[in-house]
């Protein structure tokens, strides 16, 4: 019996460690190639050397702050459910806490985007840090409603993280008169850095839990939030959208502007469908690799018993795949320019559709499922810089934060519904649902791309 298990364990080690090594080598090669491409671009634009140096200083400052902000999110994310469970709460009570977080992001966080346009995006980025600090401090308490307040603040902070930071950077980039194509590098580097921070945060969080217990990662997460707030206060300048009208009026104007432009509606829906399916994937990838026995997967029950030993390696491989995707985006932009940026989502949505469909149809073959997951993570790495660049050119400056918050409304609504219904769905059905969402995202983006003005970046 022991001899039957040992080879299977070896097969899992080869699959997961081997894939991590292969992904790392591919990512390093892509990064090296993209850096050479970047140097060639700089040689072509030598006349703009001074502006480029100023841009690099600006870019490093923004990426440093954004990396600190995202580190706070990554440090605590893996331990939220586990902490609530250790406090003795039932699954339905924990689900309500998560719904509270997504609900606050849906309602309060949406209006905070409009507030950022009126009162200042720098202030709202600073508010992100304060919300996360207080949210982390609430985790010390075992009182359910204190924890609920923490989840609500965390939901607001998440909405701020994925709207006002980007809005501030885009506005400041344009105000300083930098070449608009340089913004693509900033988006690509932010996604690449996200992958690195995720892996490092996992290691730090794991060490903190081992040494001090489940509350420790939340206390550690306060540190990068404090640092981010400090740098924002000391080095960032304020920028605004529409300042002369009330927040609700600005929000209504943003909604009307988006609603009147069917291309922006299509773009927002494509983003929401992709990200909604991505959140489903975040919930489902671990049980999917456990589910069932699996031909071509490493052999029956032994894989189910041993896959937990490799979850950290699998997560690291996913993050390296994300970094490879961001490097591919950078290479594609250098080679194809604007046209490559606007064509890329067609391939991304199609690849995501195929990967999730493969996971649904080959659910018992764990090696195939794992490869499909890696392919999907590559699309994630290219998705964020790609959509960030497109939104920077398409969304009007005066309502940028409000409009970007609006794009997250269907996403948060879907995730809330999912959290309440997920237990009744089999994994295969869930991944088919993801594939359907990616098909919808592809259809929406096809409309957006087909109606793009000839030779123009700005929609209308």
Automatic annotation (TrEMBL):
Keyword Membrane: yes
Entry GO CC: membrane
Alphabetized InterPro entries for the sequence: MFS_trans_sf, MOT2/MFSD5
Transmembrane segments: 16-34, 55-74, 94-112, 146-165, 186-209, 215-237, 310-329, 341-363, 369-390, 428-448
Superkingdom assignment: Eukaryota
Gene3D superfamilies per UniProt: MFS general substrate transporter like domains (1.20.1250.20)
SUPFAM superfamilies the UniProt entry points to: MFS general substrate transporter
Keywords tagged on the record: Membrane, Transmembrane, Transmembrane helix
Example of a GO MF term: molybdate ion transmembrane transporter activity
Entry keyword annotation includes Metal-binding: no
Protein name: Molybdate-anion transporter
Lineage of producing organism: Eukaryota, Sar, Stramenopiles, Ochrophyta, Raphidophyceae
């Amino acid at each position: 019996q022991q001899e039957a298990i040992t080879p299977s364990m070896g097969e899992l080690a080869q699959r997961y460690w081997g894939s991590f090594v292969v992904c790392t080598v591919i990512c390093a090669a892509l990064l090296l190639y993209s850096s050479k491409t970047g140097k060639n671009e700089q040689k072509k634009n030598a006349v703009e050397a001074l502006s480029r140096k100023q841009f690099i200083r600006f870019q490093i400052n923004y990426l440093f702050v954004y990396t600190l902000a995202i580190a706070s999110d990554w440090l605590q994310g893996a331990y939220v459910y586990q902490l609530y469970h250790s406090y003795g709460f039932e699954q339905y009570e924990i689900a309500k806490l998560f719904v509270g977080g997504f609900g606050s992001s849906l309602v309060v966080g949406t209006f905070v985007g409009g507030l950022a346009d009126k009162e200042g995006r720098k202030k709202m980025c600073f508010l992100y840090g304060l919300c996360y600090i207080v949210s982390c401090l609430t985790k010390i308490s075992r009182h359910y409603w204190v924890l609920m307040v923490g989840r609500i603040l965390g939901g607001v902070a998440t909405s701020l993280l994925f709207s006002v930071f980007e809005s501030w950077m885009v506005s400041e980039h344009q105000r300083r008169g930098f070449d608009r194509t340089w913004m693509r590098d900033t988006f690509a580097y932010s996604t690449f850095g996200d992958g690195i921070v995720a892996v490092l945060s996992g290691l730090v969080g794991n060490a903190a839990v081992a040494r001090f217990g489940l509350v420790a990662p939340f206390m550690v997460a306060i540190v990068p939030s404090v640092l981010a707030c400090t740098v924002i206060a000391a080095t960032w300048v304020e920028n605004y959208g529409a300042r002369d009208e009330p927040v609700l009026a600005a929000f209504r104007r943003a909604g009307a502007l988006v609603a009147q432009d069917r291309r922006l509606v299509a773009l927002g829906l494509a983003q929401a469908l992709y990200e909604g399916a991505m959140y489903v994937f975040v919930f489902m990838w671990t049980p999917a690799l456990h589910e069932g026995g699996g031909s071509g997967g490493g052999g029956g029950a032994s894989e189910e018993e041993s896959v937990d030993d490799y979850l950290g390696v699998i997560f690291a491989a996913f993050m390296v795949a994300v970094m490879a995707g961001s490097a591919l985006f950078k290479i594609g932009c250098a080679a194809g320019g604007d046209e490559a940026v606007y064509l890329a989502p067609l391939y991304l949505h199609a690849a995501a559709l195929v990967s999730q469909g493969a996971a649904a149809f080959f659910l018992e073959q764990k090696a195939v499922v794992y490869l499909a997951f890696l392919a999907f993570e590559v699309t994630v790495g290219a998705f964020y810089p790609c959509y960030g660049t497109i939104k920077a050119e398409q969304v009007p400056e005066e309502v940028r934060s409000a409009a970007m918050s609006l794009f997250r409304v269907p996403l948060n609504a879907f995730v809330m519904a999912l959290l309440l219904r997920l237990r009744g769905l089999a994994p295969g059905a869930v991944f088919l649902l993801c594939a359907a969402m990616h098909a919808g995202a592809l259809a929406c983006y096809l409309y957006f791309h087909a109606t793009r003005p000839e030779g123009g970046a700005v929609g209308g």
